[in-house]
Amino acid sequence: MMKPIKRLKRFERKFQWWQKNFGIVVRELRLKAKLSQRELAKRANLSMSTLVSIEKGNANPMLNSMENLAIALGTRLSHLFKLTQDRERL
Fold it and tell me: Residue 54: what pLDDT?
């Protein structure tokens, strides 16, 4: 049986991986849409610093912020999640 500390560390690594790759996906979609960070932040009703932190993988965005990003990028939140998960294969 795995010890609780090992499980927690494994979860933390997986979460950090997900957070980083979510940010990469947001950045890639923003660039593909030819939006500046300022424009995407405005459309998603986020501060510039929050968007920058998300793109760097340093932020843990709330679900409503992720939904706002998806809408601002012209996609669905489920699609952002799928793209994030697909990065694992890269």
Answer: 97
Q: How long, in residues, is the chain?
A: 90
Token pair in block for residue 57: 């993988």
3-state DSSP call for residue 3? Answer: coil
Domains and CATH numbers, the chain: 34-90 (1.10.260.40)
pTM of the model: 0.86
Residue partners of 30: CB distance under 8 A and separation at least 6 = 37, 40, 55, 73
- 53 φ/ψ sector (left φ>0, alpha ψ -120 to 50, else beta): alpha
Tokens matching residue 78 = 């489920």
| Phi, psi angles (nearest 5°) of residue 35 | -110, 145
